[in-house]
Structures
1.
Amino acid sequence: MEREDPFAGSWKLNPEKSHFDPNHRVSVGTMRWERTADGYLMKAEGSHGGQVIQERPATFVLDDKEHPVPGQPGTTAFASSPAPNIIQVEAKNAGHVVGKGSYIVSEDGATLTATMAGTDAQQRIFQTVVVWDRQ
């Protein structure tokens, strides 16, 4: 029997297990991962204090090469999958690293932990650990 894709499907934010940066807080959130021919498409949205926060869809091309990030001139992203349940990403702007992260699905497939660090659009340094439960 073939094992189910560890990332594909819907995920719900678990705020009690997450650790947010003060400038990047979300109290409610959903995330959807779809398998593509060369990696994944991830769509996430959330809200905090009634304000809806929509994220741009993220494309993870798992070919170990840098690719331009749509809508972010001068920014490239690199994604790799060192194991079936792990995706590592790095973003650069003008050759300088502006963000790094990992997405790790637990062995039982029930949770996804996203650990991200970098510099946001307002040039503030951030670090978050966000835990998601499979739906």
Note: The mean pLDDT is 89.
2.
Amino acid sequence: MFNWTHCLVHHTAALDDPRSMQADNVIDYHVRVKKWRDAGYHFLCEMIENTPVCIILRPLTEVGSHSTGWNTTAVGVVFAGNYMEGAPPDALIQMSINDLFRPIICGILGITKDHIYAHREVKRTACPGDLFPMTLITDHL
């Protein structure tokens, strides 16, 4: 496994349709359009039929493909939705804190909350959107 020292948080910038799994769309886009062999992110958080879920997209034993210059040191977490247009559901944020960030990102991987960044903090982008509550996550770790 890599020596993960950071975590970058992204959004898909697409409408999250709660009736279908957005992970399939992310994988399809990255493989078919970008010609990558797999999804670029390690984890995807989304709502499926009003239930928040976290899905493994790329194993932590593999380098990511989500932010140039950071892929070998930063775990990539993407949230399904466009958070320039609306905030993510509270249930999705709470699930990500309780089921992903605390036990895996901070627990198993040992990444400290001051090394969890919004994508826009390391690259010129709006990702994960102006309405994404990064501090809600990092303040509760």
Note: The chain has three helices and five strands.
3.
Amino acid sequence: MFGSVSGRTDEQLLRRLHDEHAGVLYAFVHRYTDDRQLAEDVVQETLLRAWRRIDQLDTDDPRSYLFTVARNVLTDSWRARKRRPIEVDAAQAAPTPVPDQTDRTLDSMLVAEALRRLSTDHRTVVEQLYFHGRPVADAARLLGVAEGTVKSRAYYAVRALRSIFEELGVSR
């Protein structure tokens, strides 16, 4: 039944081999690997090798031969992967985009210029409250002024900063 080797008969025999055994071979190979593509490739290579030796195939039970070939193809694939460098997906190989820091740099330059234009009293209150994150009471103690004075200076510093930013052309 599988012993005949000639033109159209070869194609029919291979098609029959595929129809009868490909699903079982795939299930067998897929138990050893989670890679669906690899399992499909192993089944295809197994059937190709069977087709090349179709005249030597056992007509009664080709399945044992197919399982042996599939196991050998899978083993060869594992060995080949160990010898090759690790394959990387294109998504993993793509460089990670670095965020553009231009806006942030320009903003920090504008803030530095605006702070430079503030009076010393207003600048030190802004630095204590906003840059160091200190509460009003702590800022007052550090600066040696009353809490009300810190609040007042902060209020007028923010108003002055708004004007300075307008002069600098910032419209956010």
Note: The chain has two domains: 7-93, 102-167.
